[in-house]
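Ticket #4471: complex job returned nothing on first submit. Input attached below:
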Amino acid sequence: MSTEKKKKFLQGNEACIEGALYAGCRFYAGYPITPSTEVMELMALSLPKVGGKFIQMEDEIGSICAAIGGALAGEKAMTGTSGPGFSLKQEALGWACMTEVPLVIVNVMRSGPSTGYPTGPSQSDVMQTKWGSHGDKPTITLVPASVQELFYETIRAFNLSEKYRTPVIVLFDEVIGHMREAITIPEPGEVEVLERRKPTCPPEDYRPYAIQNGEVAPLAPFGEGYRFHVTGLYHAEDGFPTANQQYIHDTGMRLVNKVEHNQDDICENEELFLDDAEVVVFAYGVSSKSAKFAVKELRAGGVKAGLLRPKTIWPFPSNALDKVVAAGNVKKIIVPEMNLGQIYGEVQKVVAGRCEVQGIFRVDTEPIHPKQIMSAVLGHQVEPTVIPDEVLIERPMDG
Amino acid sequence: MSSRYELRFSGSGGQGMILAGIIMAEAASIFGGKEAAQSQSYGPESRGGASKSEVIISDEPVDYPKATSIDAMLAMTQESCSKYYKDVKKDGILLIDSTEVKDIPEGPFKLYSYPIIDTARNELGKVITANIISLGMITELTGIVTHEAIEKAVLSRVPPAFLELNKKALQVGFERASELKAAG
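Support reply: We reran it on our side without changes. The output follows.
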């Protein structure tokens, strides 16, 4: 009976909120949308029980703005949505990046563009998480691929948002959000949870955007006597707008580089059979589940296939990918995605012609079938296949 | 990977096929000591349309949660049967509701046919127990989880007032499937 008690059979969306609560999230503002609605519903049920607050706002814009407010008031805050709602949140997301507000945003991807096919999975918001909001900005995006991992990665999202004082996006899709698996929820204290750093200086000396050792100052919660200005305009140490071009340059660079220069701290990857792999599948999220199945099947048949699975897609794990390519064994990299090649292009940039890169893209709301990946690795169709030819889009290496 | 066992529960939205999948997966993982993943596919409508729920049971963690080559499938409607039966593997099991599915698919699988929904309505007095009867039948036909495990999983999911009804529905499922097997 003891093992029955420790394990819980949960949906991905449930594991996400369990992770958020474990990490200390105590404020959620949201607006329901398939296939993310369970995240909101369960936060509404759970937060009052732990002394937190939940509010359903009038729309997605209001939701992220309320979550930013909650974060500025000192709470660990979260909002969640799917593609159409994520589009609406973009302006405020950029604002939170600029004002350096720790925040976690969940996007359970569905088929787009527009309202698309609400109950169908997709991976087509990957580029939107990086470029959806105007301006160069820091982007941390985690792409968990199982129910248990969703629990851990949501905790990591909160930790990273506190550490780097920036919004973090937890990006998954309808399959991961709605699938159920048995997971184990660790006891409090078993998994590291970072708490927000607070200023120790007297309120009159507080400079919310002062930089020390390259890091921005701790964030003071509103309501504790520290009064400061928060604006989306380029701002000086005190938070008020500035027109100093050197300062604008330094701040713009610092915002992006606080993420890009810490790739090795932020990025986590799973590696499978890479030591002698001649064909490597680079896959994330739901497509990595197909890839893992395919790679194990191929290995069982003596084919030298491997898997590189990023758990963090932004910053792009270029160091890990470069290491695999530089080792020299790899003849081909296959990138399966439920979009038309968003990460395929990023892989090409890193590979830079050193080996072949082939994409497998699907946008018909069915996950990529493992046999599509096996066929791409082997260079011929694996029979029997249930995939009609017209949904299989492959792109050879450019140039 | 050879221990991978794939099940698909299909019917129309509102028939409890997704719940059937969840209960089967819980029987295997929480009460059966195996690994299991349950996933689903459904249309935007809350009732009607073809809906399916898939369960992968394995001795190892499940890498891919969707069916690739199905060991056992349930079809409660004609639409879901016609749409989804093709993935049932050679010597796999296809259980259909004999009242609903008139266009009976042909293939190298073992076909079992039974009036599941009529039985729920007439013998149990509640049509909503059809998914629990079918869980009993699938359990008996496949042997992939024990009677005890599926019963624990069913009972942990239903409201107290309906415990006895669902216990009975499950029992009816075991018995009818056992008779079907005996009849070959």
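Residues 5-183 of chain B form a domain with the Pyruvate-ferredoxin Oxidoreductase; domain 3 fold (CATH 3.40.920.10). Closing as resolved unless it happens again.
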